[in-house]
Known about the structure:
Layout lengths: L5 H14 L14 E2 L8 E5 L6 E2 L4 E2 L7 E4 L34
Antiparallel strand pairs: 1-3, 2-5, 3-4
Amino acid sequence: MKQVSFPALMALGLTAQVSFAATVFTENFTYADGPLVGASGSPWTSHSGTAGQVNVASNAAELTGSEGEDVNATIAAPGLFYNSGTLDVSLPPQPGPPVASDWGFPM
Length: 107
């Protein structure tokens, strides 16, 4: 019986997982400056908070001060997803116990 080393099996497993990767959603916020929800070509919808608070400014989504709109875009593809993004914060959250939603990227 031929033996296969563990590193060889790991490499095979990682190769198989990576070979099926595909980008199913990319967002560059290339809409005109103004509200994100309702912008021409925008897939975003508001699901809680005060509608119209998330804005596009210079190809970035922007939510400032005490605004609290939550938005989502539907991904019409089956399977598990990996979420990646950049979150720029100009001021840290207010002092007090941390709240999960302060820095969350819910999927």
